[in-house]
Every structure is written in structure tokens, then in C-alpha cells.
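Good morning C.,

I know you're traveling, so I'll keep this short. The sequence:
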Amino acid sequence: MPDTLGLHRPHRVHRLVCWALFAALSLGACGSGDTPPTNSNAGGGTPLTYGIGGTTSVGGFVFVANSGADSISEFTIDPASGALAAVGPPVATDRGPTAIAGTFDKKYLYVSNSGSNDVAAFSIDLNSGALTTVPGAPFAAGKNPSAVAVYTASFVSSKGGGVGPVSYRGYAYAANAGSDTVSAYQIDQNTGVLTPIASYATGTGPSVIAVRADGEFLYIANTGGSRNISAFQINGYYGDLSPVVGSPFSSGDNVSSLAFGAGEAFLYAANASGGTASIMGFSIHPLGTDANSGALTALPGVAYDLPSCNYITTDQTGALLYATAGTNVFGFSIDQHTGTLSPLPGFPVAVGGSADSVSIDPTNQFLYVTNRSTGKVTGFNLNSVTGELTTMPGSPPP
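The C-alpha cells, ready to paste straight into the viewer:
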């Protein structure tokens, strides 16, 4: 489901991504519900990950990018309680890490570093979660890469009238806020090494990326003055990007976060500007119906005002949306037909610090919020039926 977003801010704890294991496979948690297919159309692509996406039903990991400390903190998730436990000391990355994305098989983790203009890459131990730098990493990006997304497609070839073996192609994308471009890379499935494909022009200050669950479209929020959203269609076989007809689309303000809802039919944008902060909604033009596939249309009446708004995320069903604002989390239900947001009872819920990035684990049981002022992560138990949040005992840790 959600997302794949990241915005550079000089805070110690910034971007959070969950991981989970399922036998030898994993889809980085906090994302879609797709699993590797047994077959697909010959030559057709099926997305497995995009940005920070994935699903599983058992334990896992949480990674946090520490922008002020140039490192990544890692935690294990207790599958029963959702409690977090640190896994060793933080791992050094390059300067100013802002966002994290991982591959579907949980083999590789990618981090955009806005201070050093590159993308760090790590291989991940499937048992312990230990990180090891990929050969040749970090990989050059444009200026001030502030978000990173990962997408993996599967392909099945016809062989002798039957179905051949499944093959995978992985791609990474980095939004370069300082050069107004998005860099595309191919991921070596055996080593994790990134090979540049091309760079594509965006609006001014691209800082947030979201890739739809079907892998067809990539959206980039431009926060450097153009105040719009660039939309691209992804070529699943080669990883290159083509602008969607009508792109870029007005966002009304500077967007700090993007999230999909209601089966990826709608895209929501958090406008973080103080005094005019809001959550906007857009319908996404259906794929293949005409030349406007992937185009955005603002939803009438969907501009929910908040005193401030930092990040948003949607749950694994696409029926619930959560937003961090000030020291609180706000909860909303999503109308599956119209995309309208309705406030949930019992909100806002206090975080205990300045609420920043927010993420939900793949089992749809736990929600985590990074605290900008305290440098800690607060965990909540999530009721997926009512949307209610209950603070985990002992969270955040002292």
C-alpha cells in the first residue's frame, strides 16, 4: 500500500521502514500486499516491491534513518506484542540519510543520502538482519537526493508452448531535490549493485516518491517552489520512465508525504506548511482506459485541514489513513468509492514527542512513529477494524 516517501529534514530520527521475513522471501513492510506470482503473462511484469512496500504475517525488522547522526538504527519487532528491540549499534551510512527502501527478497536495502549526493546500498543477513555494504556503494545520484524507491517486476517467458521459469528485474529511483531530476537505476539481483539507467526532469525540488502497487506509475512531489506532483509510467522490463499525460499536477502547496488508499485508486498528499497544512486527495485515472492513464484529478471536498502535517501512511487494506501533526497522530477512514476522509473517534492520539515519520507493519497490527525531538520510536497496537491506536506498554523506551 503505502508508500515510498522521504523528505530531507535535519532531524536525528527521520525515516522509518519496517521489514518482515516469510521463509526465504520478504517484502519490506509498511507497503503493499503483493506476493511473488506463480506465473504471469509472457513478457509481462508483476510488481513485487516499490519504495517501501511489502507483506508478511510473521516477525521482522524496523530500520530508522538517523539524518543528524549519518547512520541507520535497526530493531527487531516482537511478533506478539510489536515491541522493538535494538539490533546492535547503528550502522554508518553517508551524509544526511533521508529515506530507505528495500527489495522484495529482503536481500538489499537502499538509503538516499542528501548531504553526500549518493545512494547507499547494503545487503541484509536474512537471519540476523545485519547490514553489509554492497560492493561499489555508495552510488552517485543527483544533487541532494531526498527520497528513494525500489520496484521489482517478475517475468515469465513462454517455453516450448509451456511456461518458463520466473525471472526478476529490480529498479531503484532517487528524487534529487537539488537538481530537479529523478535518477533511475537497475539493481543487480545477485550483488545489489546499482547501474544507472537515466535521469528524468521533474518539477522544482523533488522530495517525495510513491510507486503504485501495480508498479505502473511513479509519483514525485516537488516541494521547491513548483508545488506540484510529477507522474511517470514505469516500463517494467527496462525500468525507464515516461511522463504521464498532463504531468505535473498541481498539489496546491509543498507536499511532505504521499500515500495510496482504497486499492490504489486514490493518492493522498500531506501539505506540511504551517497555517495552511492539510491532506489533499486525488483520484488516479485507470490504467489502459485511454491516453490519460495515471493522471491525477483533485477530489472535490477532500482537503482536510490540520494545524500541521508531517507524514501520512495508509494501512494494509487501504481503508485507514494516519497523519502525524505536532505531537499527535490523527486517524481517518477512507471511503472506498469516493476517497473521502472521515475523522476516526478517539483521535488525535499523543505520541510523547514531535511526531515525524509514521509506518505500519505488514501484519496490520502495529504502527510506529519516530519522535523528532526525543530521537525515539513510539509503538502503537492497531485495531484494523476500528482504526483505534493503543500505546504499547513501555513505549517509547526510556
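Safe travels,
E.
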